Structures are given as C-alpha cells and as structure tokens.
Recover the amino acids of this structure.
C-alpha cells in the first residue's frame, strides 16, 4: 500500500472532475484562444450555489490517521460527521449571506451550498474512538489505529 491510498474516496465524482487532466487541458486549449473575443461575450458569472467539494488533507502517524478539511465560513452546526459500514461521511453546507443582493456582486468564485465527502476507512482504524474537532474553519477528524495494527519495535538478540 502506498502513502495516501489507504482512504479511498467512495463518492467523489466532483473531486475527480475538478482534478481531471483532460478537463484542465480542455480549459487551456479552448478558452485562451477566445480571449480576444471576451469583450463581446456575456460577462454574467455562473452562480456557484451548487454542491462543492472542500479540500482535504490526510496524513498518518504511528498511532492515528488524521483528516483536515477546509470549511471556511461554515458553522459547526452545519457540519455532520457520521460513520456507517466502515465509511466515514462528512456533510454540511456553506450558506450564502442573505443580507446582500445577488445583483450587488461583481464576482463570486467561492462555492456555496451543500458538500459531501466520504472515505472508506482502513481496517486498522478503531472506529469506536473517532474524534472530530472544528476550529478556525478547519474540521479535523482523528482516527486512532487499533493497538494491534501499530508498528512495534522488535529487539534482535545476538547469540
């Protein structure tokens, strides 16, 4: 097993689309040649009130696996962390500010609306001791490893 492959996203089609090299290539090949026509094109921005995928870092130590998910301007009560059938599910919503009219915005690049991430947990995670903390717009989920799965130092005896 290589580093970073132990938590396999199970329902991350949107994440795949965001990192698809052909999609990035298509954007560069087919958008840039038309920049001279940009003043003639519609200038209306797409309104990003659609499902989105927050960025996630995953790292592992001797005793635990840690997920850190960026959720700026998401309230703690709008985030749900569940675990069912060995799948860790992160759901929530970033709500758009209601006091500002849509017409007053010149550009909206951040995404709003619901998000969902799911990860299949490795067998060596102790699902009964999962901990989640939300601080400064970052959700940190700590997945402790089972004692029997931790690396052990074995002394070599010389005769």
């Amino acid at each position: 097993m290589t580093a970073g492959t132990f938590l396999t996203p199970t329902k991350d089609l949107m994440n795949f689309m965001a990192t698809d090299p052909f999609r990035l290539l298509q954007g560069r090949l087919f958008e840039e040649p038309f920049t001279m026509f940009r003043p003639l094109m519609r200038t209306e921005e797409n309104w990003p009130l659609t499902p989105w995928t927050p960025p996630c870092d995953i790292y592992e130590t001797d005793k635990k696996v840690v997920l850190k998910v960026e959720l700026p301007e998401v309230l703690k009560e709008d985030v749900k962390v569940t675990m069912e059938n060995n799948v860790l599910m992160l759901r929530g919503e970033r709500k758009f500010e209601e006091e500002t009219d849509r017409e007053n915005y010149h550009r909206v690049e951040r995404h709003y609306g619901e998000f969902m991430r799911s990860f299949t947990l490795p067998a060596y995670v102790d699902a009964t001791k999962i901990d989640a903390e939300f601080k400064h717009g970052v959700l940190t989920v700590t997945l402790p490893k089972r004692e029997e799965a931790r690396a052990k130092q074995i002394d070599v005896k010389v005769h």
Remarks:
- The beta strands are 8-9, 56-60, 64-70, 79-84, 87-94, 113-120, 131-135, 138-144.
